[in-house]
Design brief:
Layout: H1 5-18, H2 24-44, H3 56-68, H4 73-92, H5 119-132
Length: about 140
């Protein structure tokens, strides 16, 4: 008997919660990513009944749809991680012969180094700061 994709998704989330103790915030983000994939599949007319209906091509098209909708890089990355984890789980548990999510590289996000003021400016601000603070007098 083949289990439906929604049942498998719930089992995956349950494993994340119980066995791996994934944070609630992460699971909610993954759930939102899954819902996004399901909504895209409906709008595209894709059959999404069992594990075999998830393919690399569909995942790729879904990611392009997210970009076209103006989703932030962080959101696209989180959603992709959710589906990659799910397809890996499907493969490891015998529901998929191959893992379509394995072909994706999780994009690295750009990190920015904060720009600090010049040392002289910091030293001046530190020298002035104690003079600007009012000293609280103890209540007697």
């Amino acid at each position: 008997m083949t289990l439906g994709l929604p049942v498998l998704w719930r089992r995956y989330l349950s494993e994340l919660r119980i066995d791996r103790a994934v944070a609630d915030r992460t699971r909610r983000a993954y759930e939102t990513g899954w819902n996004s994939f399901v909504a895209t599949s409906r709008s595209m007319g894709w059959r999404l009944q069992d594990a075999g209906d998830i393919s690399y091509e569909r995942l790729l098209e879904w990611q392009l749809t997210l970009k076209e909708a103006g989703k932030q890089d962080w959101t696209c990355r989180t959603y992709l991680m959710a589906l990659k984890g799910f397809t890996r789980w499907l493969n490891a548990n015998g529901h998929l012969v191959t893992d379509p999510g394995a072909r994706f590289r999780t994009p690295r996000l750009k990190r920015t180094i904060p720009i600090l003021p010049a040392f002289h400016d910091l030293a001046t601000q530190l020298a002035i700061a104690p003079k600007q603070q009012k000293i609280a007098r103890p209540i007697r």
